[in-house]
Amino acid sequence: GHELGNHTYTHRFLAPGCTQEQIRSEIGETQSSIYAVTGQTSRLFRPPGGVFNDAVLEAAKRERVQTVLWSWHQDTRDWARPGVGRIVRKVLRNARGGDIVLLHDYVSGETQTVKALEMILPELKKQGYRFVTVSELLGHSRAVGKNND
Predict the structure, then answer these.
(1) Buried-state track 83-116, b at ≥16 Cβ within 10 A, e below 16
(2) pLDDT tens digits along 64-121
(3) b/e for 13-45, b at 16 or more Cβ within 10 A?
(4) Which of 65, 74, 79, 149 lies 20 to 30 angstroms, CA to CA, from 91?
């Protein structure tokens, strides 16, 4: 039930300053890697840091990926390891239907995200929220396809 999204190959901020070719390379190399492992490519793309400009959007369009960001009120900043309680409070106090919550599955040092999710998910479920993939949220059938079909 998980989805893979393209988040660039090296995680560099793409704007400002990257050429169209550099941006397309970052997206394209990631698509190739995803395909090599799964036999599918992603249809979803999130630029690192949420930093983008017209050149990034154009490159994403040419690479046939949809740019998706998170709900701005749901940036947990979990990458900075602010504490489990702070992550939990941020999500629960700001929860709204249709949110995309920004969380990271890897941070330098011990992650606090998994422990936070062990509290967040049951509480949101109790409040009547349900969890869907980004594709479901956007009304797409799926986020990946064979050879980007």
Answers:
(1) ebebbbbbbeeebeeebebbbeeeeeeebbbeeb
(2) 999 999 999 999 999 999 999 999 999 999 999 999 999 987 777 778 999 999 999 9
(3) ebeeebeeeebbbbbbebbeebbeeeebbbbbb
(4) 65
